[in-house]
Write a structure and sequence with these properties.
It contains six helices and no strands. By secondary structure, the chain is mostly helical.
């Protein structure tokens, strides 16, 4: 768990990209599983249905630690905004509240991954004297 805290931007970027890949592959996985399913209850495995929540939890932890250690306030806002939009879109998709195109989920997860990479590369303190928000 300590590794997740120390490398939160890396884990956040990976979780964001995996979330996007999961969203893209889900229709294909369901289609492939329908060919082999005996009854309709086994079409979408439980672990596949809830993989997005696991990735969302990893993203939450990554955003919390990345925002805490970021040197720029705008990155904190960007990380939290992307995570909030992504979580709202995923919850909306699970509970079928409103109809949104899938591209919103793709864009928000890709943006979250991109902001993690940007934060890792440009918004980290290089010395021990640097504290977040000093730059």
């Amino acid at each position: 768990m300590r590794l997740l805290f120390e490398k939160s931007d890396i884990f956040g970027a990976i979780a964001g990209l995996l979330c996007m890949v999961h969203c893209i592959l889900t229709p294909f996985v369901i289609f492939a599983l329908q060919a082999y399913a005996v009854n309709a209850y086994e079409i979408n495995p439980f672990w596949w249905q809830n993989l997005d929540f696991i990735l969302l939890l990893i993203s939450l932890i990554s955003v919390a630690y990345s925002a805490k250690n970021s040197s720029k306030k705008i990155m904190k806002v960007a990380l939290w905004s992307c995570w909030a939009i992504l979580s709202i879109l995923i919850l909306n998709e699970k509970f079928h509240l409103l109809s949104f195109p899938e591209t919103g989920t793709y864009i928000s997860s890709l943006s979250l991954a991109g902001f993690h990479v940007y934060n890792l590369k440009y918004c980290q303190c290089a010395s021990c004297e640097c504290t977040p928000d000093n730059k």
